[in-house]
Design brief:
Helix content: 25-40%
Largest sheet: 6 strands, parallel
Structural class: alpha/beta
Radius of gyration: 16 Å
Number of helices: 8
Order of helices and strands: EHHEHHEHEHEHEH
Strand content: 15-25%
């Protein structure tokens, strides 16, 4: 890894089995994220998992929240512990943290910022599904919080490939370094 790894953390966001299953071709992103996780572990970079989840009955979902309200009927039928389980090919190992969020952004409704401060993290390396969801929202808030940001473009995915392309090649560049996992691993 050519980049400075001190004060860096790898965020693995919304890589839950049910979310990964919604992608038409999940094998590529699973392989790439697995490569990033392995590199982080080998370089003593903390790997922090961020998952979205709700309490039984989803009291956190306001009727004003269009995206979550649309999914509430479906999500409320699921076992949330199962829903929040990270895909088995990417699962945390002992000692790695999982942060539960209640909204799209990794910071909203979670203790992620407290964890990052306690580790002295100043640089976030982002992976996640969806590029137009958790990755975009987290970049915006993390940039406002003065984190240095790197997005591993091939470790992010969106159901709309054109949206993914526009975000990673045009939008994210103003707030983050956008590279591939192979460039990050070096």
């Amino acid at each position: 890894m050519e980049q400075n790894t001190q004060n860096t953390a790898l965020l693995v966001m919304d890589m839950q089995a049910g979310i990964v299953a919604m992608l038409p071709d999940s094998a590529a992103i699973i392989g790439n994220v697995n490569k990033a996780i392995t590199a982080a572990r080998n370089n003593n970079i903390p790997v922090i998992y961020v998952v979205v989840g709700f309490r039984s009955g989803m009291p956190e979902v306001s009727p004003n929240n269009k995206s979550f309200t649309t999914s509430k009927a479906y999500l409320s039928t699921l076992n949330m512990d199962d829903f929040m389980t990270v895909h088995p090919d990417l699962a945390p190992i002992d000692g790695e943290l999982t942060v539960v969020k209640r909204r799209v952004c990794a910071f909203t409704g979670s203790d992620l910022e407290v964890v990052l401060r306690s580790f002295g993290i100043q640089h976030l390396v982002l992976t996640g599904i969806a590029t137009s969801g958790v990755v975009l929202s987290t970049i915006r808030e993390a940039a406002d919080k003065d984190y240095r940001l790197t997005v591993l473009a091939d470790c992010c995915a969106d159901r709309d490939e054109e949206v993914h392309r526009v975000l990673t090649t045009k939008v994210f560049q103003s707030q983050a370094d956008v590279i591939t996992v192979d460039e990050w691993v070096g």
